[in-house]
Amino acid sequence: MNFIDPHIHVASRTTDDLAAMARMGCAAVAEPAFWMGYDRSSANSFHDYFRQLTEWEPKRCANFGIAHFAWMGVNAKEAEDVGLAREVIAELPAFLDRPGVLGVGEIGLHKCTKNEVATLESLVDLAVARGEQMLFHTPHLEDKYKGTRMILDLLANQPNVDRSRVCIDHCEEHTIHLALEAGYWAGITLYPTTKATPERTVDMVQRYGPERILVNSSADWGPSNPLAVPDFIFTMRRRGHAPAAVRRIVHDNPLQFMRGSRGFAFTPPDESSDGSSPR
Amino acid sequence: MSALPSAAQTFDREFLTIRARLIDVAATLDRIHRAEGSPEDDPRWPRLRQAMELLAAPAGPWTEPIQMLFSLPYDPDWQGKRGQAPFA
Fold this sequence. Notes:
The complex is a heterodimer of chains A (about 280) and B (about 90). Helix content of chain A is about 40%, strand content about 15%. Chain A has about 280 residues and is an alpha/beta fold. In chain A, strands 1-2-3-4-5-6-7-8 form an eight-stranded parallel β-sheet, with helices on both faces. In chain A, helix 6 links the parallel strand 6 and strand 7. In chain A, helix 2 runs parallel beside helix 3, helix 3 (about 80-95) runs parallel beside helix 4 (about 115-130) and helix 8 packs antiparallel against helix 9. Chain A starts with a strand and ends in a 21-residue tail after the last helix. In chain B, about 55% of the residues lie in helices and about 0% in strands. Chain B contains three helices and no strands. At the A-B interface, helix 5 and helix 7 of A face helix 3 of B.
């Protein structure tokens, strides 16, 4: 079954990972700008990273037949340095206009500080002014519930946000209903120890239905699995869900969400053929 | 959604997994207990005990209450308090 991973940091993954994803049916990925595991020293470092996400990673993925899309933003952790964040935000419009860029993300909160909130408001203002889609990172562990509520509060201050073009990501059992009931997309991240497992994710799909739910690996430089979406597919099938129901979550939903971006141009491969060229 | 297995079928399928995970938790607690010192002054320790009490409740839901136990409190009036601690 073909799938789309709507949140993965392929810049942190090997070519072997890309090959394995392709073999498992990965047709497309979306890569949000994020924290690379260390704080960058200047706006130039961000500039080079944004070039990597819009120039190099699409080529690397294309070698394996995977379409690559990207989100541009200042991540929640580095948002603490408001001065640096402002410099980076000033550069974002040029990258948001590049082909294959889906919008502003991943942005959000980490420790829910005053500085993080200030940077996040600037990023949301930019996205709203430009009519961009948005992808929100919600905090880890004990900060998740509080941070998710605060992000939703900030978005509620913005009357011009089209909620069908916003994803609240890394939802878990205690936050998913907040995103869905407010009309946003809810992303669920499959991680080995934090966030959600495939079993718990299927539980949430069964409880809330398939509408506006995205499932992703968010695979990066830490403990994570680039084949987490195929694991979810296997779990959903093992628990009795029909292929069409599974496909809706891992293929049709991300396609529907990503089609809300003007930078999204993608024709899904025809799964009815073997993919080979006519002779 | 497709037709789902019954509670009995689900329990039958998951029993060994639940058993294994409970034993794993018990073995981890034993490991901590055998080690030198005690974690009882660590604020996470009573929270773990509370989580196990929640798990022992005769009826669910179990997941959300445990998630909330491990969550920081949210102040709905946080925007009105900007400029004050903890936003100072």
